[in-house]
């Protein structure tokens, strides 16, 4: 029987081999800002566990290189990610001297490479299985539950990122709420403005090119530059418009960040609304006219429902984009997870950077999965035009 080789598996196997045998698994530092000392898997884990992990990786490499059943690859990827998550927590307790509150242990490049490689295995298996939208959301919920269980169990308490969180727990949740409000609030405002504007651009062709060109120009402005451009006009409004400052409008802070995110959000919403409405089959409109539906009735009863999946795709783009861009808002006092990112950069404390970066990536990833599932469900509704 001839063995079949998986081409993607060969690439993943190379990442696994490098991450396990050549790259450091954890990094030990005497305190939070000094350079770290790399520790291999055998050095970072208690006796026996390091060798067991290396053996597990070697077996995984064989299974990944060969064309094994998809479900086997999925289970392997998920189990491996769980094992790595548990072991990195154990490495913190193993490397930290007893009763030492200053030492820091962080995941090193080997851990991240192994996690990335097994995440690729999992993602590839999920793509091949073509899970239903509900199954993908359920899997996301299960992963979130597993992470929450690890956090509540204290398995990661010895890691530097959790020690950074421990000294900033109240501030963390305050900035998390600001980040979510900025991302979702600007999305809601852009949807309220962009949807009618997109409908208008679809109906009035002479207006379409001008509006889309202006929105395209806004998209080309770098985020920091746009924040800077908004400081002067918003500062003028705060000084000259009664009650503006009482409502939080000022040159720096959340107001320019919100406005910038709103402006960045308009193009995907408007453009996808135009594309979605343009893609409505002519037969559907003709049939609606034939039964005596007015323009308003056709818009809300036929055109918008058929265009909804495309519009929702634009909203997905906006939400993921805004979750990332909201990090930059910290530069002008807008708050959010960027506060920890830029504090960490200023203090050369990379675990503080991770405290802001990791939840930002997790939020964007979860939002993408949920809205992808919603888009697919809306596309597959009974009676919807193909």
UniProtKB/TrEMBL annotation:
Q: What is its subcellular localisation?
A: Cell membrane
Which Pfam families does the entry mention?
BPD_transp_1
Q: Which UniProt keywords apply?
A: Membrane, Transmembrane, Transmembrane helix, Transport
What family does the entry list? Belongs to the binding-protein-dependent transport system permease family.
Q: Under what name is this protein listed?
A: ABC transporter permease subunit
Q: Which GO terms describe its cellular component?
A: plasma membrane
Q: Which domain of life is it from?
A: Bacteria
One GO BP: transmembrane transport
For this protein, the parts annotated as crossing the membrane are: 46-66, 71-90, 110-127, 134-156, 176-200, 212-237, 257-278, 299-319, 325-345, 352-371
Gene3D superfamilies in UniProt: MetI-like
Which topology term describes how it sits in the membrane? Multi-pass membrane protein
Keyword field contains Iron:
no
Question: Where is this protein chiefly located?
Answer: membrane
